[in-house]
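It would be a great kindness if you could assist me with a short task in structural biology. The matter concerns a single protein, recorded as an amino acid sequence and a row of backbone structure tokens. Could you please explain, in whatever detail you think fit, how the structure tokens follow from the sequence? Thank you for your consideration; the sequence and its tokens are set out here:
___
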Amino acid sequence: MDLDVFVSLHRNEWDRLDHLVHRGRKLTGPEADELVDLYQRTATHLSLLQSSAPDPMLTARITQLVARARSTVTGTRRASWRDATRFLAAGFPAAVYRSRYWWIPTAVLSTLLAAVIGWWIGTHPEVQSAIGAPDDLRRLTSPGGEYETYYSSHPAASFAAQVWTNNAQAAAMCLVLGAFLGIPVIWILFLNVLNLGVGIGLMSSAGRLDTFLGLVLPHGLLELTAVFIAAGTGLRLGWTVIDPGPSTRRAALAQQGRAALGMAIGLALVLFVSGVIEGFVTPSGLPTWGRIAIGLAAELAFLVYVYVLGGRATRTGERGDIDPEGRSAEAPVAA
């Protein structure tokens, strides 16, 4: 393609489109039709330039022009409370529900691995010796030890905020790093499982497993569920890189990535609830059964939320993605 000839042929169209885009008043009917026509033609010109003309400055200029024209044609859309309500009532639970075949196996396998690690540590004194000196382990596991005082070592509000921040970061890392074939997700998940397994093993060897579970379960049920969902979603994103299905890899990754972003926001809210429980309920003076009952109620409420609202939304076509008008158009893919 002769770039100079191409530019001279279409410069007037680009200038006219730029003029229409920057008009300070509303367009007339014929002008609006002209804008749409020029936008479509310029988008075609951009495609030709990207594939045939190694001129980055011209390509960048036309790219910006097409983007501004598209914004003018489609209009801008502002987020509203209606969007937030729709996200919480349909988008987020549907995204969690649709990914259940990833996060449920993740949860089961992780729980089993934590139990195996706990059994291995608890029944092998030589492994315990490798973890720490006897005096150090006693300081961890004895009544009033560090495993117990950890939850009351800071004011409840600041502790809850710290826990929420740490857990939200871990969940976000699982979601973001899933695109790297899910390998970082497996490592992050293993570290969480290992920490849980070490606690189970050390406290069971000291004959205080019931105390440990009484401290972990109130907040841990909901917290670990959120982590498992984040990990499962990250693994699903990683698998999309390998097998995008009937869509193009780019389109499939875009859809899963948008769903993962929404998932990060929703899980941050879930982890906020678990952080509040960990900060205010876990170290409270309530009996163990009362604390566990609160944690179990929160976990059951979340699962009902996912399976009832999420299942209903999924059956109506909700995918946890943004609205179609907010997404780029996708070219048909041959079966």
User: Anything to note?
Assistant: Confidence is low (pLDDT under 50) at residues 324-335. The two ends are 33 Å apart (CA to CA). DSSP finds 13 helices and no strands in the chain.
